[in-house]
Give the backbone structure.
Amino acid sequence: MSDSLYTYAVARIRSKELSLLNSQAIEQLLAAKSYDECMRLLADRGWGDGEPGIGAERMLAAEREKTWSLIGELVEDMSVFDVFLYANDYHNLKAAVKLVCTGEEDFGIFISHGTVDYRAILDAVRQKEFGLLPEAMRAPAEEAYTALSQTRDGQLCDIVIDRAALEAIERAGRESDSELIAKYAELTVAAADIKTAVRCQKTGKSLEFIRRALAPCRSLDVYQLARAAADSLEAVSDYLSTTDYAAAVSALEQSPSAFERWCDNVIIESIRPQQFQAFGIGPLAAYILGRENEIKCVRIILSGKLNDLPEASIRERIREMYV
Amino acid sequence: MSSLGIAFALLGAALAALMAGIGSAIGVGMAGEAAAGAVTEDPNRFGKVLILQLLPGTQGIYGLLIAFITLTQIGILGGDPNISLVKGLLYFAACMPMAFVGLWSAIRQARASVASISMICKRPETFGKSMIFPAMVETYAILALLVSILSIFGVGGLSL
């Protein structure tokens, strides 16, 4: 019985939630006078790998590493969290295809956390042995490789792999027993489809191209969305007004980053009740998402401070925090 | 027929101990997992979470008490074990409140204990309050214990 309740894991996560950054901590970072002061504040909170004077990327990578090693310690079967890692897998696949087709060197474009080791993906693509990849990755890998090597069309390669990634996320959400994971997957796919549709509309893509780029999901009729995107931005807004994403229309009209912020805030709002759940995979999934959101916010603040952006400009990009 | 009477009475006593014991074992185990998680992060919480872990253990003790009283009443632990079928069935029925409520309340109390342990992890200062939530479930185990005890003594006084 307790195996599916994650009783031990949830109790530990509850303690770990105490060290998550809340809105006051974010305010403190925003109020910091410089990038270095921000880094100092984060180091004081235990961020990083213990080495003094490390860069922002290394600090954030160390934090992500801490999250996944904690979850690995708590959960025996990590496949329940694959939905969070598919984006990394397909990013690595995209990087591998581009690297092999262009013959360039690996310059640190791979992400270490995925369901498949990025080296295995790179080897499979290098040897053109797509059968070595997980089943769901084989066809898109081959299609993207062929598209890029024959047509040199990077965009075509991107949409093939991005759509495959979204399909993998959607499938994982549909098959998950966790309501939270299902909701996360649905929102992720729908948000990506909306962003793609808007981008395609702005760049004047054809209906066929848009249809090919959009991944099916339950909360959106992608054919209608594609038709709207092929028509005009107003048509996209009109269509979205009839869906669950009606509230996103104003953010979408504001800017793509405002829409991304809206999506992240919706996810955070939907996971917040998990703070009061004592059982199940939900609190663990919520912790992972909370940490990812925290890392994203810190990255925004650090890059803002590094580029001397005004505080107001950084603030409008900041997401709501989980705790 | 008289042997069936003692068989039913003994079955009732055994079920009271068995079901309440199973409930407590599940409950204490479940709360123990949460307690271990809490102590892993902060060993100073040991004393507080131990109390919360033990709360679902009381049903097992109540079940044992009911079984013991029944065994004494029906003469298994000394005396005359010759009781009628009707009396045996009455003893069986008398044990059932403790058996069922013991099993169910221990598991539900454990869930409340686990939630309270999570509460202590997040807000250590709420220990007093966190005790109350699982303790409320205890009320129903005590009510079942009372009903079972009164029934067992009541049946003992009947001449059937």
About this structure: The two ends of chain A are 29 Å apart (CA to CA). Residues 179-279 of chain A form one domain. Chain A has 16 helices and no strands. Chain A touches chain B at residues 1-2, 5, 7-12, 14-18, 275, 278-279 (CB under 8 Å).
